[in-house]
Here is the input.
Amino acid sequence: MPIPLKKASRCLSLCIRPSYKLLAIVFYSLLTSTAAIADADFRVVSAINQDQQLVDYQLTLTDCQLVEKFEVTAGTFSETKVATVDDQNRCRFQFTAKGNNYLAPSVQITFKTGMVETHSETFTAESLPPTINLNSVNVIFIDGQQYLAVSASATDDVDISYLAFSIVGLRASDLRAANG
Here is the structure.
């Protein structure tokens, strides 16, 4: 049954029908519990020095407008920072970790709602260097045009953060003209 306009202006949320109260409470609790979640990501930005137990990281937090502060720990490093939001609504923080547990950074995020969330990652030093194999180089024809097709594969025992190589194709007539 609809609430008359005169009564609605006086009772606000108290005049919600009982069947809708539960739905409103569930919806509100979902909003408050999921609104404060930010993604955290640690990236290694230097070579891992196993001899000195030393590495540089960058921490990136998303949805940083929701974050009040964050405490970063890794090895002997520990620092609490007030959230400073960039133009993409992220917080970024670069730091150097050393000592025991330097490969296991963690962050404790305190949200403006008072909620606290912890995120940690574990890294490993590379024992084998990555490999790249040039599988094939072929000249192929598509619609009467010649193209250079290159196939390569890369492997690593930890991870591959990026792979880049440049291929230049030269026409045989250009090589002959240059006495090549």
Observations:
- The chain is about 15% helix and 40% strand.
- The longest strand covers residues 131-142.
